[in-house]
Amino acid sequence: MLKILAAATLLFIPFASAQDATPRAPEYNVVSFQAQASREVANDQLVAVLAIEMQGVDPAALGEAVNRRMSEALKVAAAFTTIKPHSGSYQTFPRYRENQRIDSWQVSQELRLESADFSAATKLIGKLQGSMVVRSMSVRLSPEARRAAEDELISAALAAFRERADLVREAMKAQG
Fold it and tell me: pTM for this one?
């Protein structure tokens, strides 16, 4: 669960304009306070990173093989319409022998999957695990759900701020 917080703060301090160079008299009875609103929001998106990893002596042949397998994985993922697949980082690096000579090459490419449909995502991951390794899997709050929760909380924080301002005004027997 992710906790979202929206805060509204108001200082009852008159702000002098940047062009006003006249000195101001000290002000008294200045009140500073803040109000906030928060709530827990359930994570609604699964993010998984899978990778194809291959080793061999010919980096060009390895690159072709990895690209072919990634193309096949993307075709499998395309059948799952509720999942957003993105091909990710591609790496080629040498593996050395004891005498610092290149012994072989390792090539890898990542596939990132994002979905709110946890069932479909885990089913796809299960299918792809035969030819790929799972590098990471996590849940998060989607950007859309975060924005919606923040929008709701802004209104709640402003309402809480108004309530506190009224309490301060009444306690000080102020006019406004």
Answer: 0.67
90-120 per-position pLDDT tens digit: 999 999 988 889 999 999 999 999 999 999 9
CATH 3.30.70.360 fits 45-141, yes or no: yes
Q: Round to whole Å and give the CA distance between 155 and 29.
A: 28
* Pick from 114, 59, 68, 69: nearest CA to 91: 59
pLDDT at residue 59, rounded to an integer: 92
Block residue for tokens 């490419």: 109
